[in-house]
Amino acid sequence: MIRTLKNGDLISTRNFGGFCPYYYRDEDTAQVIVGDTADEMIMSIPKRRRKVDPVACVGLFNFNYPLGDRTLIQGLQRMPWHATLDASGTIERRPPLPHGHRLAEPAEIAASLLGCLQEEISTYLDGHKRVWILLTGGLDSRVTAGVVHKIQNDFTAEIHAVTWGTEKSRDVVYASRIAKRFGWEWHHLPYDESTLWENLVIAAEWGGAEVAGIHLHGISQMAKLVRPDDLAIAASWGDSIGRAEFSGVHLLQMTIPQIVNKYWLVHRFLFEECLRLSTLDRQLAWFRERDWSRHIIAELDLQENYMRRMISHAMNYIMRFCHLEQAFTSDKTVSTMWSYSPICRQTEVYYRLLEKLDPFLFDLPWARTGVAPSGNIEKDKTLKTTYHEWGRWLRQGRRQELKKLVCDGGLSGLGVFNISQVRQCFKIWRQQPVDSVGRTETILQLASIELLRRRFDLLCPGDRTDLYDALLARVYTLGKKIYASFPPLK
Q1: How many CB atoms are closer than 10 A to CB 45?
Q2: Are 171 and 218 in contact (CB under 8 A)?
Q3: How does pLDDT run along the chain (490 residues), one tens digit per residue?
C-alpha cells in the first residue's frame, strides 16, 4: 500500500529484524511517498526519473544485495531498522541494541535462550488459528519447531509444517521426520527448474532486483496453502543470533571484505564514485560508534546489510499471502544473546538447547553435515546434500533464455555496465561444471536487472563502451593465470 506522509506523520521500524518500508521524496511536490513493495513504489515514480543506481549495482555484485538503504532505482530507499521517518524525508536512527562481553557455559546460555524464545514465540502464536512452521533439516528451524511444540498446548492454533526442496534431499527428509515426531501435518513444496525461473521474474518485478531469484526458494507455492489470517514462523535469524554464524562462518572468523568492481562489470569511469558511496552506505550500520571491536562492527554490518537487505527481503515475499514472524528477533532475545561474548555463542549452545527440547532433535542428523549433535551419523547414503540443483537447471534448461537477457537484451543501453565483460562473465559461467553454483548468482543478478529495465522502462543517461575496461580486465585475468602456473614457494 502506498501512502503520502503529511506533517506530523511518523513511521518507525522495529529495533531489529522487522520489515523495512520503501520511501522516496517526490521532486515536484516535495512529498514523501511510502510503500511496502518495490513494484508499487517504482510505478509511482515518473518514468523520466526511473534510473538504475550504479552504486546499488556495485553492492549487489559484491555482496548479493545493495548496501545501506539503497535500491536499484535512484532515489528509492529502504528504511533502516531502529529508525523513524518523518514527512520531510528525514531519517532519525536510534542506537542499535547493545552488545556485551559476558562469559558463560553453553548450558547456561541455552537455558537463557530457551526462555527468551518461549516468550517470543508465545507472542507470535497468540490469536492465530493456523500456524505454518518453515521447517528444514537445519538446526535453527528445528530449535524453533521444538519451542513451538513445547508451548503449543497453551494455544488453540493448528500447527502445520512446510518444507521446500528436491525429493530425497536431507532437508526434506529430516523436516518430514520432525513433523511426524510432533504430530503436525507436513506439506512438501517441490522445488525445480520452473519454480526457480518463476522466482527470477518475481525477484526482478516484485523485489526490484534487490536479490537474485534463488533466494525466494519455494515461497511462491505457499499461496496455495495459506490464508491471509494465517501465521508463518521462519527461523532465518537462528544461526546468526543463536550461535553467531553467518553462512557457515563464525563471527570470530569474520572480516569486512573490500568493495571491488567484481568481474569488471561496472564501467571504470563510474566505479570510483560508486566505491566512495558504497563505503559510506555500508558504514551506516556502525558509523556512530568508533570504539566498538571489529567483531561488533562485523556483526552490525552482517545484520543490517546481509540479513536485512537479502535474507529478510526475500523472506518477506511470504507477506503477500499471510502474516510472517521471524523467530530469534525480539528485542529480548537479541539483547540477551548479544550480551554474551562472541566466543560463547557457539554451536554447542544449540546442542544443549536441543537436548532440553527433545532427545529426538538431538539425535537427528544435521542436513549440512549428515551428523547429529549427538554424533549419530546418517546411514542412508542416497540422501542428497543440497535441496536444489541451481547450476544444472540453469545451464542445461535455461541457458539460451538467460543469454538473451544478459548478453542480448538492453543492459548496454543503461550506461552502467561494461558489456564486453558482461558477455565474458556469461561465457565463463557457461563453461563452468554443470552442477556448480559458480557465477550463477551474478548471472541471475544481471538477468534480473534486465527484467527490471523492461518492466519499468528504466533509464540511464547514454551508453559508453569503454575499451580500456575490457583490455584491463583481460590483462588482470591473464596475470592471474600466469601467477597460478608457477609452483608454490616452499
Answers
A1: 19
A2: no
A3: 899 999 999 999 999 999 999 999 998 898 999 999 999 999 999 999 999 999 999 999 999 999 999 999 999 999 999 999 999 999 999 999 999 999 999 999 999 999 999 999 999 999 999 999 999 999 999 999 999 999 999 999 999 999 999 989 999 999 999 999 999 999 999 899 999 999 999 999 999 999 999 999 999 999 999 999 999 999 999 999 999 999 999 999 998 899 999 999 999 989 999 999 999 999 999 876 666 788 999 999 999 999 999 999 999 999 999 999 999 999 999 999 999 999 999 999 999 999 999 999 999 999 999 999 999 999 999 999 999 999 999 999 999 999 999 999 899 999 999 999 999 999 999 999 999 999 999 999 999 999 999 999 999 744 444 444 554 555 555 555 554 554 443 4
User: Domains of the chain by range and CATH?
Assistant: 3-93 (no CATH), 106-253+289-363 (3.40.50.620), 390-485 (no CATH)
| 8 A C-beta contact, residue 143 and residue 354 | yes
From 255, 259, 260, 343, select the one nearest 301 (Cα to Cα): 255
Residue 324, C-alpha cell as written in the block: 510472517
